[in-house]
């Protein structure tokens, strides 16, 4: 009788661990479960495919302008003026520059699109990127001007925006 109780308790513990594993595994594969905010712009990728640094950046509001390469190409081809910021969550210069860039765009009331080149490698060739961060202004589907690197201040980004937007 004592062995049956012992084995029953062991079986219950194993079932509990399996249930916990299944629940945790299901939640981690849901895109909105990756971040506290539920932000998930990588709609063409499974959550398991994202790198750790990208997942870590999901809750950072400075990176809530991300789009997929197809969405970026569509915005560029729309003919309207469009700023695209190419960045990587593993780039220390991007991590320093992005808050400055976002601040400048908020002050200028201009639209910004971000493209994470850690997750999407084809933009390196498509847009002839040499480094990150790179900010490119497109108009009528063509590149007008680009700024590569971290200028180190909001004013430099504001000047770039003013020069390209015609203000």
How does this structure look, described?
It is built from six helices and four strands. The chain is α+β, with helices and mostly antiparallel strands and 167 residues long. The N and C termini lie far apart (86 Å). Helix 4 (92-108) links the parallel strand 1 and strand 2. It has a four-stranded mixed beta sheet, with helices on both faces. It folds into two domains: 1-30; 47-163, Glutaredoxin (3-Layer(aba) Sandwich), CATH 3.40.30. The chain has helices at 2-28, 52-57, 69-77, 92-108, 122-126, 154-165; strands at residues 82-87, 112-116, 134-139, 142-148. The relative contact order is 0.13. It is 46% helix and 14% strand. It comes from Salinicoccus kekensis. InterPro entries: Thioredoxin-like_sf (IPR036249), Thioredoxin_domain (IPR013766). The chain crosses the membrane at residues 6-24. This is Thioredoxin. Residues 49-166 form the Thioredoxin domain.
